[in-house]
TrEMBL record:
<dbReference type="InterPro" id="IPR051091">
    <property type="entry name" value="O-Glucosyltr/Glycosyltrsf_90"/>
</dbReference>
<dbReference type="GO" id="GO:0016740">
    <property type="term" value="F:transferase activity"/>
</dbReference>
<dbReference type="Pfam" id="PF05686">
    <property type="entry name" value="Glyco_transf_90"/>
</dbReference>
<feature type="domain" description="Glycosyl transferase CAP10">
    <location>
        <begin position="158"/>
        <end position="401"/>
    </location>
</feature>
<dbReference type="InterPro" id="IPR006598">
    <property type="entry name" value="CAP10"/>
</dbReference>
<comment type="similarity">
    <text>Belongs to the glycosyltransferase 90 family.</text>
</comment>
<protein>
    <recommendedName>
        <fullName>Glycosyl transferase CAP10 domain-containing protein</fullName>
    </recommendedName>
</protein>
<keyword id="KW-0808">Transferase</keyword>
Length: 478
């Protein structure tokens, strides 16, 4: 009875004994353990896993210019990017943290964020502690925490002590208007202008076992190779989308009406992930989906991880004006590395983009290649650097010394992998990193005016495209 009681109360990174987030209900996770006994055995075994002792590496020894194995070269973060929008990527960190620039982040701020958090991450002297509150969809929590562990491995002794609240669901929840006077610092995978949620790289950069997606650089390499199988001239001169519309997404349901190659120049296909899993995902390999000159991105319930894979194809990406943005999508520029599509006049807008691209093939191909190049610039080194600087800048705002919550448990690679199922473990181990000989890139100084100019430039370009569409429609109706 004592064992049963322990097992029934122990919360795990895999999702055992965790309720779904009340602000976004979803089905409970089904575990592969065949019996209640085998599930109890795993919980017992992994809960008593002891993380090995590791001495704390002093940051100064890693950063010193003499007597250190770490190289002294520290490039400016923008210099590692080759594309205009990505040059501003790290500057968004300052903008995201502006709500706390004057007051700092207090214990009260963090406790307020707890009301909408699925888990809490505390880093102390290079060790990771996690406090679990609610379950996350599928394996999101496990892969996100693995990513933070890899950051600690990559830059040992350099990640500062910090106390962070995370939500792992899709929609931002900290409304700017409601929380302006006392904003709650909550990290998640996306945000928008109406919310103060702080964007953090999503779990799929380390893999997504439920959809058979491998770690980011592996997946990108295969997609890029697949994109080269056909020249631009030999790619189908239509727009292509394949996905799941049944995710409470009005825009995807509207997109299904555009499935007419002659009328709208689009091929729209429904993705059934349950059937794909039964068939070994043979029909959903992303490297086999680069055969069209144009690929469409449509948000799901909110933001979608599919954007980075669509851009990676090198087709001209047609982005249906998004409501949400993740940490890297804010660097995209319309007509530079994607083509904006109107959500209010969807099918005609797609048709206009396809007709423009087919009439201007060199320009369309150039936009597609720049989109692919943009995603190539978002290497895992850059993802880790972004994580490092975001956590570092956030920690500077803290007005208190982080402490381990009494209910939090230390997490290391071994304790996390203990809870991972076979497919999850395979992906996680393939994304393991070793300590870097290089420092993180150097964060540029805050420049809000520069970002605002970029935002206004994007809005103007989108307006110009809308005007092109309206002019074409008016000419066609005469």
């Amino acid at each position: 009875m004592k064992v049963d009681d322990f097992v029934a109360q122990t919360k795990t990174l895999a999702g055992h004994n965790l309720e779904p987030t009340p602000w976004h209900i979803f089905p409970r996770k089904a575990f592969s353990e065949g019996t209640k006994h085998s599930q109890a055995y795993r919980i017992l075994q992994c809960s008593y896993f002891s993380c090995p002792y590791t001495s704390v590496v002093e940051p100064k020894s890693l950063l010193s210019d003499s007597g250190s194995s770490r190289r002294t070269q520290q490039p400016q973060c923008p210099d590692v990017f080759r594309f205009v929008g990505a040059n501003q990527l790290h500057r968004w960190i300052h903008r995201d943290l502006e709500p706390w620039a004057e007051t700092g982040v207090t214990k009260e701020h963090v406790e307020k964020a707890k009301a909408n958090a699925a888990f809490r991450v505390v880093i102390l002297s290079g060790k990771l502690y996690v406090d679990l509150y609610y379950a996350c969809v599928q394996s999101r929590m496990m892969f996100t925490i693995w990513g933070i562990l890899q950051l600690l491995n990559k830059y040992p002794g350099m990640v500062p002590d910090v106390d962070m609240m995370f939500d792992c669901m899709d929609k931002p929840i900290i409304n700017r208007t409601e929380h302006q006077s006392f904003p709650a610092p909550l990290f998640r995978y996306c945000t928008n202008e109406a919310h103060l949620d702080i964007p953090f790289p999503d779990w799929s950069f380390w893999g997504w076992s439920e959809t058979n997606l491998r770690p980011w650089e592996e997946e990108f390499g295969d997609i890029k190779q697949g994109s080269r199988r056909s020249s631009w001239d030999n790619k189908q001169p239509r727009a292509y989308w394949k996905g799941n519309p049944d995710v409470v997404s009005p825009i995807r349901m509207e997109l299904m009406k555009c499935n007419h190659s002659r009328l709208w120049g689009a091929q729209i296909m429904r993705q059934n992930w349950e059937e794909e899993a039964k068939g070994g995902f043979e029909q959903s390999k992303l490297s086999n989906q680069c055969n069209h000159r144009y690929k469409i991105y449509a948000e799901g319930y909110a933001w979608s991880v599919s954007l980075k894979y669509i851009l990676s194809c090198g087709s001209m990406t047609l982005i249906i004006s998004p409501e949400y943005e993740d940490f890297f999508s804010r660097g995209l520029l319309p007509k530079e590395n994607y083509w904006p599509v109107s959500p209010t006049d969807l099918c005609p807008s797609i048709k206009h983009a396809v007709d423009w691209g087919n009439a201007n093939p060199s320009d369309a191909e150039r936009i597609g290649k720049r989109g692919q190049g943009y995603m190539e610039s978002i290497s895992m080194n850059r993802v880790y650097d972004y994580m490092f600087h975001l956590i570092t800048e956030y920690s500077k705002l803290q007005k208190f010394k982080p402490e381990k919550p009494s209910s939090a448990k230390e997490v290391c690679e071994g304790s996390l992998l203990c809870f991972a199922e076979q497919k999850e473990r395979e992906l996680l181990e393939r994304s393991r990193v070793v300590p870097s000989l290089d420092r993180p890139c150097k964060l540029p100084v805050a420049d809000r005016d520069r970002l605002e100019r970029l935002i206004q430039q994007k809005k103007k370009t989108i307006q110009d495209v809308r005007y092109m569409e309206m002019t074409r429609t008016e000419r066609g109706s005469r």
